Hints:
The chain is an all-alpha fold. It has one domain (2-222). It has 8 helices and no strands. The chain has helices spanning 2-37, 49-58, 62-89, 98-115, 118-124, 131-165, 171-187, 196-215. Helix 3 runs antiparallel to helix 4 and helix 7 runs antiparallel to helix 8 (196-215). The two termini are 16 Å apart.
Amino acid sequence: MVMQQLSGTRTQQRTLARVTGAAGITTLVLVLGTSLANDYQSAAFSSDAQQAVAFFRSIDDAFGAVSSFLTAVGLIAMLWFTIGLALLLRRYDGDPPRRSAFLAGAGVISVVSGQIASWDAAAFRAQDIDPQVARYAFDLGNLSFANGWVATGAVSICAGMIFLSAKDLPNWIGWWAVAAGVGQVLARAIWTNDLVFVAFTAFWLWVAVVSVLLLTGRLAVAETY
């Protein structure tokens, strides 16, 4: 009976690991993929009101609407990834499981920050939007994006700390996570500087690597009890 229960638990954990990995890959494809696939007019964080209007009018088309929808779905996949990762790392966290619990909470906040739809609302009314309203919507979207770095940074730091404290998990993933997480938190302080995308890129590459390892069963989170 005990062996059957352990076998069933391992099967459930392996399923959770695969689902979590798939959710991470889905997030990358839907959120980052749609952002990179477009050829819209670029707009810097420091864009003025007229540039903001031009930007919103450039994304007011069918691809922009589809991209907005896919991003919203991708952010829900991000929620699956962060909560799934927190559940998988729970048993390495001790009691109380403060780091894994905070990881899950930070994941929720990161998704909420990303779901603030000021850009979608501005693009929807882009043909007759007031320039100052467009500028406000543009800045609100960018600041929500920047605030999200603190949340994803917390996700990364908490996961990294658990990886580093667990003898069964690879330390290099933990150090990578901590470095990317600290970088994202610090990036919020200089959010208009292009250097912020170094930490941003490091985090999403980490998500990609962890997702592939989970999806292929090459990470020990679902194997030992």
